[in-house]
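Deliverable D2.4 — example input (structure tokens):
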């Protein structure tokens, strides 16, 4: 069985669909990309492709902007969240290695 990227993280959605799902304009979506809040990939033809995770993130960003939060503050929050998530993944991986080595399970 091969390991695949979760469907929510596959970059397959066009900007037009993202616009319809989020209610944001193309310009707003591109602006959030410029501010390093989302990271679409480019197709061979140069069009942007987004994931469901990107759509969810855009909706969170839009809510925060509406509440008066600045984009640099949002970016800082996202970086901190990413660091916390990475640390948790490392802890889980290490615990799995310990469990495999010693045949123990942490409850």
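Example output (designed residues):
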């Amino acid at each position: 069985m091969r390991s695949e990227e979760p469907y929510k993280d596959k970059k397959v959605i066009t900007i037009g669909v993202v616009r319809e799902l989020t209610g944001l304009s193309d310009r707003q979506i591109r602006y959030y990309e410029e501010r390093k809040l989302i990271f679409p990939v480019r197709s061979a033809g140069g069009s942007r492709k987004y994931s469901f995770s990107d759509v969810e993130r855009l909706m969170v960003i839009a809510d925060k902007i509406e509440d008066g939060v600045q984009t640099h503050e949002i970016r800082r929050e996202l970086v901190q969240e990413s660091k916390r998530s990475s640390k948790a993944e490392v802890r889980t991986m290490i615990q799995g290695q310990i469990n495999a080595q010693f045949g123990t399970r942490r409850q």
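The chain is about 60% helix and 5% strand.
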